[in-house]
Specification:
Length: 224
């Protein structure tokens, strides 16, 4: 897209964001003056630039529908075709990132938009088709310790508890949420006894999209 069109879209997005900020400030001031006013708002009669339909398996459909960034731009009613195409390109990258957090690193994604002149609610209809593919499975987990906990015989049970309660095991599907939760729990078990200033020294998830496997490693530093 020529720079002129990029600038045009950027200006529209900036102006739209500025309007939202001003409207929010005005609404806050009005509410402060009329504390007993109803918080309900009337439905907008303005026609959307587009609506979105996501065709995907149920295990990913709701998540994508809630988190896709393209939803934020539906009310930019003066979008032209080239600007919408640019947003759809960005939406594909966003969808790949969202699916990656669910453990799908080789999805097939298709985005199509067509005009809907007879639709009073939206000028265009965007259809997103997602085939997530096979989820990544965990192939290896390494949990290591540095600091006094690594050598202290009195901390042997604590080290064992951290390893045995680790949730992500070989053969399980990898998700970013489970990975984050496992690290948080390991750190909590480390700091709950003997080592209150312990930290996660390093953590790494190595995903191989070709083999659809993930290797996980974490090193916990007990501190003094």
């Amino acid at each position: 897209m020529p720079d002129r069109r990029k600038n045009k879209l950027s200006q529209k997005l900036f102006l739209w964001s500025a309007c939202l900020v001003l409207m929010a400030g005005f609404a806050g001031a009005l509410q402060a003056q009329t504390p007993f006013a109803s918080t309900a708002t009337a439905p907008s009669s303005q026609r959307l630039a587009f609506d979105i339909e996501i065709q995907a398996p149920t295990e990913v459909q709701d998540y994508l529908q809630r988190h896709i960034e393209l939803q934020r731009y539906r009310e930019l009613v003066d979008l032209d075709a080239s600007e919408l195409a640019r947003l759809l390109t960005a939406a594909e990258r966003n969808l790949q990132e969202l699916l990656g957090t669910l453990g799908y690193f080789s999805p097939v994604i298709q985005l199509l938009a067509h005009d809907t002149p007879q639709n009073p609610k939206a000028a265009r209809h965007v259809v997103i088709t997602v085939q997530p593919g096979e989820p990544v499975k965990i192939s290896d987990v390494t949990i290591e310790f540095i600091g006094p906990i690594s050598q202290d015989d009195a901390a042997r049970d604590q080290r064992e508890a951290i390893r045995t309660t680790w949730a992500l095991r070989r053969g399980m599907a990898f998700t970013q949420a489970d990975w984050d939760a496992s690290k948080t729990k390991a750190l909590r078990l480390l700091t709950a006894q003997r080592y209150p200033v312990g930290t996660i020294f390093s953590s790494r998830s190595e995903v191989d999209p070709d083999t659809k496997t993930a290797r996980l490693s974490i090193t916990l530093d007990s501190g003094p």
